[in-house]
Design brief:
Shape: globular
Distance between the termini: 36 Å
Number of strands: 18
Low-confidence stretches: none
Strand order of the largest sheet: 11-12-18-14-15
Radius of gyration: 29 Å
């Protein structure tokens, strides 16, 4: 056992940090809740599991917007295998466990990567801990899809490294399947931006290593196998990727995003000081953050000692032009490129790339490019630790002076708030902590080489671990599971089947000024008021349908409709809300929680039948016609396309229509019309929905720009809408084919 611990202590060390940060929460039976866990991930996944328990596929979400894809919503990550754990534990509690597992997984991947590169155990430990507990990963842990996707980055680089090595030896039987599986898992994890950055880094790494080891011939072989791995991995993930690609093509992100939106959350240059003092501008966990934007987007702290070792590795790498320091030069360039991209609008580079290079206009928050920098700094820390020796001669003098300087920083920072009037109150504490960790690094540096035993290396690892645990403490607030359980007061009052609607200005006020403020995680509120207020998407926990949808990807028709609706004066909005089947509209009521009341919207209806129809050729024309002040949704509809024979409106009395079956993927209506007409269902028009009238296939038309309509002849009829997306079933077939190919290749290679 002692021998095993000596060999594997870096892997054990990377487990301690996630246990320290998230173990107490799990032991207390608490859950992550702040931000996206409460407003997105728990509602999405809890609802999906409920559908599965009822024997239905979680393909459609009728509770948000006027309906939206569920499985195709990439961040829901319903097909990501680790998320299957949520089926056997409490969903809210289980997300904390998944975060712990993924942080440990990220650290273990870095340990194995540095081991693959031949670095000693202390290097493995420092690289693993500094990456897995970095500010980038820990501060974003509540963004569960980022947490899961980023954890696969070191494993992907490890797989690329092994592929290059085995292509050189002309045997890829082991490396290729691993690369395929890791790519597939990362693409199922649910965050396209992080997965794209990871894939680019893996390609850059593979190209560099192949060129370094074998020149153009090896580069060509590696490129071919990388392409093959990517193609096969796409097949493995096709049940998720094909519906998602269809959703993207029909979303508001199908075209280039607005540059101002894209470059929101560009890395604030002053936060570079956070690499030494992460709380220099405050910390929302302590309720005093005052920097630009929010805390977590610019979080990149890797620990003081790893940063100093990384800087030493950079200096050595560029001073010593020998092959063993090529990695340091490559990683320093990688960190520099990463920082330039992360700065976004703060330099001319990113705006230029936005205008000229594909994919730069697809994602928000350039600061997320800093994941390359965090990876590079962690690797450089490992390289620096491998060459770390006690100082001699003049270096000893400067090391002692630096140690004394770090202690002076502690002393003067502690007195700063009293001696210097008007000093920013967050700076002294942050500088005290930075000085203490620099002093600890100085002590470690001054230990003679002959005393740097295994115990010494373990102590160094624990110092870095403590540094990062302290920095990450409180960045992921938790609460009782009761927040997610039971019925809210809102559900008790408004559960009549009609949709709720919260205007955008009220949603912003409650979200960013009352509950989810960027300066503090603890705004002194009862968090159950979030559910009582009906803040999207917490309404899903009560099964309440909402016209709102808090999601970065939205159906394009829905996004355009809501933008137009928000531009309509409040007093004139009622007619369009009735058309949306909104029965309750949020009205601000001041500072008293839950900050809103809900006023009834009279006449809301989800289904109707009309005999007066205007035909238009384009969606734009339909939207303009519907929001014209002369439009009367109770007696007319706007249909896109040209009428088929027998679908010319006859006028006269419309008749009656009734909703008889209301399921997520199946809606049944009974219509009775003396002269025929158009049955309009106020649910979102989206590919994959099919209709039948009296058992016969019928065409679904886009009605009133956003909704669905079918034509019915005179008499009584049953209309059935079913959601059967071809993209999912095609993806399922491709996924089975992909797994079959992979299993066959493994079997064939093992026999050879």
């Amino acid at each position: 056992m002692r021998s095993l611990v000596r060999r594997q202590w870096p892997a054990l060390l990377v487990l301690l940090g996630p246990l320290a940060l998230f173990g107490p929460m799990l032991a207390r039976g608490e859950a992550l809740f702040w931000g996206t866990p409460l407003l997105q991930f728990v509602p999405w996944r809890d609802y999906a599991l409920d559908l599965l328990r009822r024997g239905d596929l979680p393909l459609w979400n009728p509770l948000l917007g006027m309906g939206a894809p569920l499985l195709a919503n990439y961040q829901s990550a319903l097909l990501y295998p680790p998320n299957f754990l949520l089926a056997i534990v409490d969903v809210a509690w289980g997300h904390g466990l998944l975060v712990l597992i993924h942080l440990a997984w990220a650290g273990w991947g870095m340990v194995l990567l540095t081991r693959e590169l031949g670095l000693p155990r202390v290097s493995q430990a420092l690289a693993g801990v500094s990456f897995s507990l970095s500010g980038y990963l820990v501060a974003r842990s509540g963004f569960l899809s980022i947490n899961a996707t980023a954890a696969w980055l070191p494993w992907l680089i490890l797989a690329a490294e092994r592929l290059v090595a085995q292509c050189r030896e002309r045997r890829i039987a082991r490396a290729f399947p691993w690369l395929v599986v890791i790519l597939g898992m990362q693409w199922l994890a649910g965050h396209a931006q992080t997965a794209w950055y990871a894939l680019l880094l893996a390609l850059v790494w593979a190209v560099w290593r192949a060129w370094q080891r074998g020149g153009a011939p090896l580069l060509l072989r590696v490129g071919m196998w990388m392409a093959a791995a990517g193609g096969l991995a796409f097949l493995l993930a096709a049940p998720q990727l094909l519906p998602t690609l269809e959703y993207m093509a029909n979303s508001q992100r199908a075209s280039a995003l607005d540059p101002q939106f894209v470059m929101t959350y560009s890395f604030w240059p002053w936060r570079l000081l956070g690499l030494l003092a992460p709380n220099l501008f405050g910390n929302p966990a302590m309720g005093d953050y005052w920097g630009y934007g929010n805390y977590w987007e610019d979080a990149a702290y890797v620990g003081v000692l790893p940063l100093l070792l990384a800087m030493a590795a950079v200096v050595r790498g560029w001073r010593r032009s020998i092959p063993t320091w090529r990695e340091a030069r490559f990683l320093s360039l990688l960190a520099g490129v990463s920082l330039l991209l992360a700065l976004g609008r703060n330099t001319p580079l990113f705006p230029l790339l936005y205008r000229t290079v594909p994919t730069f206009d697809l994602f928000q928050a350039p600061t997320r490019w800093s994941i390359w920098m965090v990876f590079a700094l962690s690797m450089l820390a490992g390289l620096g630790a491998a060459a770390w020796r006690s100082p001699q001669g003049r270096a000893l003098y400067w090391s002692r002076l630096a140690f004394a300087g770090s202690l002076s920083i502690v002393f003067f920072a502690a007195l700063g708030s009293r001696l210097v009037p008007g000093v920013v109150r967050t700076a002294p504490a942050a500088l005290v902590m930075a000085g203490l960790w620099m002093a600890a690094a100085g002590v470690c540096h001054l230990v003679p080489d002959e005393r740097r035993t295994g115990a010494y290396q373990a102590v160094v690892g624990l110092i870095v671990l403590a540094d990062l645990v302290v920095a990450g403490w409180g960045l992921n607030p938790t609460t009782s599971l009761d927040l997610f359980r039971g019925e809210s007061p809102l559900a008790a009052r408004l559960n009549d089947g009609h949709r709720l609607y919260m205007p955008a200005d009220i949603e912003r006020e409650i979200k960013f000024k009352r509950t989810h403020r960027f300066d503090t995680f603890s705004p002194d509120i009862d968090w159950r008021q979030v559910r009582a207020a009906g803040l999207p998407n917490a309404t899903m926990l009560d099964g309440l349908p909402s016209a709102n949808n808090f999601d970065p990807i939205l159906p394009s028709r829905y996004a355009s409709w809501m933008a137009r609706l928000e531009a309509v004066p409040t007093e004139k909005r009622e007619a369009w809300l009735r058309l949306m089947d909104v029965g309750w509209r949020a009205v601000a009521r001041g500072d008293e929680p839950p900050w809103v009341d809900y006023a009834p919207v009279e006449g809301a209806a989800r289904v109707r039948i009309v005999t007066q129809v205007d035909y238009v050729d384009t969606p734009e024309a339909a939207l303009a016609a519907v929001f014209d002040e002369g439009f009367d949704p109770e007696r007319q509809a706007v249909i896109e396309g040209k009428p088929a024979k027998g679908e010319i409106p006859a006028g006269g009395r419309p008749g009656d229509v009734e909703l008889t079956v209301d399921e997520p993927r199946r809606v049944v209506l009974h219509a009775s019309s003396p002269q025929g007409g158009w049955v309009v269902l106020s649910d979102a028009f989206y590919p994959g929905w099919r209709a039948a009238v009296d058992g016969r296939e019928a065409t679904i038309y886009a009605a009133d720009f956003l909704f669905r309509a079918v034509h019915v002849p005179a008499g009584e009829h049953e209309i059935v809408f079913r959601y059967q997306p071809a993209s999912y079933f095609l993806g399922l077939g491709l996924g089975l084919a992909g797994w079959s190919v992979l299993v066959f290749l493994i079997w064939r290679w093992r026999r050879s």
